[in-house]
Write a structure and sequence with these properties.
It is a single chain. The chain is an alpha+beta fold. It folds into two domains: 341 residues, FAD/NAD(P)-binding domain; 184 residues, no CATH class. It has 17 helices and 27 strands. Strands 3, 4, 5, 11, 12, 13, 14, 15, 16 and 27 form a ten-stranded mixed sheet that branches. Strands 1, 2, 6, 7, 8, 9 and 18 form a seven-stranded mixed sheet that branches. α1 runs parallel beside α4 and α14 crosses α15. The longest helix has 32 residues.
């Protein structure tokens, strides 16, 4: 006997539960089922988040539940990486501006710009239970044993067969089964391995470990420490619990001849800083291991199915982007399924957009991870390596111009209209590049060469793209030229409008200030930050050719300077004096 669902989701991790919760929130009439092979809570790696997740948790209605779990507040990360053996910090918000507010806190103020570091066994169960409270039918310890394809249309799923013998039919099927990719494999969807990194990961959990740094009430940072053969993560996930892992090239592991337990213990012994903080700690005692190769699904949609989260692609965890990619992709997928069931918009257009955005988003994290590893000395010729990255993105450049393109934010936006890469804004990306190369001039601002700008839309076509808001998709417009696109939203839209009135950079800045200070609420509160982000966006538009620059000697010069030690990326201040350098 067949059991019918409007949406059947395979997998109960963050991607599956995000999709299910938003489907039920915005259309409680939909019958949504999650089929999960394990019983929650269960261990899972991938504890470090990026700030965008908070916005999605708030929309799902479970921010308060996650905050009540008292996970550490992630204010950034400390790295020992790049050309310098010293530690340096990357901050989501300047620590000098962080207030020691009591917890639990609401999703407002400074907490909109921070993230969580989570114990996945607890976090994932919170999300699964929340989806169930919203009316999702959750079936744990229920394995999908077969995906049955339609005999006439091989790209269509007829039903799922479950381990308890039941058959499930649905209007829409979603593969959120992680790297296993149950539907992806059943539908014969190939994957590619676009990155240059083939790593393996080993990790365990430590109780009563000392946090490397404590900031205010529950605030801390992730530590990423290069040890030459690879790198170690040190992530507080509860007040009394820390995740410690080691990532190295798979060939290094094979050549070592060590077991997972042996190489894990060896790696910990190489890092006195970590040893210092686990002197009184005890291990769970089980070393977990996994292949850590970045991959990308060649397709993410079919006749009546979608692939989301890690089933769609995986990027090396150096940038902590995995959970953000899962949550963000699942949110957008929920919106698309909602509109398909309403009969709104062209289904083909929505599916093409979903696949294009997820592919681009995962790819840019994979490619920037390649650059990140290049900055750790894994590649001897950084410029030639970045040329290869640019070529993969469909852009032909010589080595030096490709390096400049990457340093200036060649990968555009995780969120339409906001220029950034790998969770960093463009200003942060430039500072990162300077740290990697030891030459701040390599990451200089092209805006500094000009003081007059003109919009360039030649050979560009105007296209529509979807905007996702409040459970509905609205059509917006933008420009596309080759592989580059310019969505007319947020900073992009404001800049395009101002550039049709003003060319002088100082007039542009005045226009941006007036616009943002005239807004109400959150936008006005962060007017100065918005102006900075808009100028970073102008830099990307200039590099990508949407804007042309000139220098008018009759007008004042213009200059953007790195904030250096006053910026959001700077030399570590709170633990460096206690750290022992092991970077050989």
């Amino acid at each position: 006997m067949s059991d019918f669902f409007d949406v059947a989701i395979v997998g109960g991790g963050p991607a599956g539960t995000t999709c299910a919760s938003l489907l039920r929130k915005y259309n409680p009439e939909l019958r949504v089922g999650i089929f999960e092979k394990e019983k929650f809570p269960r261990e899972h790696v991938g504890e470090s988040q990026l700030p965008l997740i908070g916005t999605i948790l708030n929309e799902m209605g479970c921010w308060d539940k996650v905050e009540a779990a008292d996970f550490p507040v992630k204010l950034g990360a400390t790295y020992r990486w790049g050309s310098s053996p010293e530690m340096w910090d990357f901050e989501f918000i300047p620590f000098s501006e962080f207030r020691d507010d009591p917890r639990p806190a609401t999703f407002s103020g400074q907490r909109q710009w921070t993230a969580f570091q989570v114990d996945r066994s607890i976090y994932d169960k919170i999300l699964l239970d929340h989806a169930a409270e919203l009316g999702t039918e959750v079936f744990e310890e229920t394995l999908v044993t077969s995906v049955n394809r339609n005999e006439v249309n091989a790209d269509r799923i007829e039903s799922l067969t479950l381990s308890d013998g039941r058959s499930v039919t649905a209007t829409t099927f979603v593969d959120a089964s992680g790297h296993v990719g149950i539907i992806r494999r059943a539908m014969d969807v190939d994957v590619t391995y676009p990155g240059n990194i083939k790593n393996v990961a080993f990790w365990d959990y430590w109780d009563n470990a000392e946090w490397a740094v404590s900031i205010g009430t529950g605030g801390t940072r992730v530590f990423v420490l290069s040890i030459g053969s690879g790198w170690i993560w040190f992530i507080p996930i509860r007040k009394d619990r820390v995740s410690i892992g080691y990532i190295c090239p798979s060939q290094f592991y094979k050549d070592s001849g060590k077991s997972p337990e042996e190489i894990y213990n060896w790696a910990i012994e190489q890092e006195p800083f970590v040893q210092q903080h686990i002197q009184n700690a005890s291990r769970d005692g089980t070393v977990h291991a996994t292949k850590d190769w970045s991959f990308l699904s060649k397709r993410m949609t079919g006749d009546n199915w979608y692939i989301v989260g890690e089933a769609a692609g995986f990027a090396d965890p150096i940038l902590a982007g995995g959970m953000m990619l899962a949550h963000a992709g699942a949110r957008e997928l929920a919106y698309i399924i909602l509109e398909e069931h309403r009969g709104n918009h062209d289904a083909k257009w929505l599916r093409q957009h979903y696949e294009h955005v997820q592919t681009r988003r995962i790819n840019q994290h994979i490619q920037f991870a390649d650059f990140w590893y290049a900055g750790n000395g894994q590649f001897t010729d950084l410029e030639e390596h970045t040329k290869a990255i640019a070529r993969k993105a469909g852009i032909k450049m010589n080595a030096k111009s490709a390096f400049q393109w990457l340093a200036n934010g060649g990968f555009l936006d995780d969120v339409p209209g906001r220029a950034g890469v790998g969770g960093l804004d463009i200003a942060a990306t430039k500072e990162i590049t300077g740290l990697f190369t030891g030459e701040q001039t390599s990451a200089g601002w092209k805006l500094n060469d000009f003081n007059s700008f003109r919009l360039n839309l030649s050979r560009a076509t105007k296209e529509k793209f979807p905007l996702f808001y409040d459970g509905r998709i609205e059509e917006a417009v933008g420009y596309r030229r080759g592989v580059k696109w310019l969505p007319l939203v947020t900073h992009n839209a404001i800049l395009v409008e101002l550039l049709q009135k003003h060319n002088d950079v100082h007039d542009l800045i005045d226009g941006l200030r007036k616009f943002y200070t005239s807004r109400r609420g959150k936008t006005a509160d962060r007017a100065a930050v918005n102006v900075q982000q808009a100028m970073a966006t102008l830099e990307v538009l200039l590099v990508d050719g949407w804007v042309e620059g000139k220098f008018n000697p009759k007008r004042p010069k213009f200059s953007i300077q790195s904030k250096g030690e006053d910026g959001m990326i700077h030399a570590n201040r709170d633990v460096q004096k206690n750290a022992v350098d092991t970077n050989n």
